[in-house]
Amino acid sequence: MVLKQLQHFLSYLQQFERVFIRRQIDTTLAERRYELSAKQKQIEKDEKRMDELDRLFRKIYEDNVSGKLNDERFYKLSDGYEAEQGQLKREIEALTAEVSQADMEVTNVAKLIAVTKKYTRIDELTPEILNAFVDKIVIHEREKKDGKRTQQIDIYYSYVGIVDIPTDEEMREMEREYMRRTTRQTA
Predict the structure, then answer these.
(1) What is the reported pTM?
(2) What are the helix and strand counts (H, E) for the chain?
């Protein structure tokens, strides 16, 4: 069953590579575009606040040295600024990692396409092929529906996870739509 699914997946990628890439990137980024934009703005805001805290810290240090600010008040303010900077630094790191992850998802689609170019046809399921294309396989419990036993198997493909492979007719329609959009954009 896995071999059959891989053959179908490889055929799909070879026939409709452009549509697949477009679809993967659109679904991963379109859903997250607003979220990523908001995170990028938050990173910029946090970085500005970090700079502002540095300026404030220098100011209270100078005020302390010149005697305008007593030591007790200086320590209280500086501890607060340092704690806020630590919090901001952790937040910036977390947000940066999330934004980088989205960039990585686009790169992963390209990596999968590169792997598929190595294989024109898969006749036999070998460990090499399995490792190249599949991250994991999840086999669910058997169920009995309408007097028939069924068992769901989820294949998580390398770099992109589970892929909903459209029917051939759906893919041809997507290809026609893609060509219409491309033709309109170049005209």
Answers:
(1) 0.47
(2) 5, 2
